[in-house]
Amino acid sequence: MCISTSKSTSSEAIHIPKQNRRRSMRNKIQIHGLNRRKASEEKSETEIEVQNLKLYMENISIFEENEKLRKKATLLHQENLYLMSEFQKRVILKGDGISTTLSQLLHDQ
């Protein structure tokens, strides 16, 4: 009897019902799909991080350029004020009626 029971157990262990095989394959497919989705998500996260870094660096570059332009504009404004004052001094020194009107106009600006 022991021999017959061992035969029946061994045949049961070898025999896998078709329904169980389908479930096993389905689980493998789902796991494979999940792994592929995780890999895709990790890749897209990496791409987003790279893009974010590029945008950050571009933003810093824009800020630096903006600061340079701001300083240049300040210098040009100061130069403009200096030239206007020099022009007013020369016009006033001439002493004609037109120069007085011009100096008043320039002073109003």
TrEMBL record:
Output compositional bias ranges, type Polar residues.
1-12
Q: Where is this region: Disordered?
A: 1-24
The cross-references to InterPro entries, in alphabetical order and at most eight, read: ZPR (IPR039312)
| Entries under PANTHER family matching the protein | PROTEIN LITTLE ZIPPER 1-LIKE (PTHR33601:SF21), PROTEIN LITTLE ZIPPER 4 (PTHR33601)
Q: What is this protein called?
A: Uncharacterized protein
Q: Which organism is it from?
A: Daucus carota subsp. sativus
Provide the taxonomic classification.
Answer: Eukaryota, Viridiplantae, Streptophyta, Embryophyta, Tracheophyta
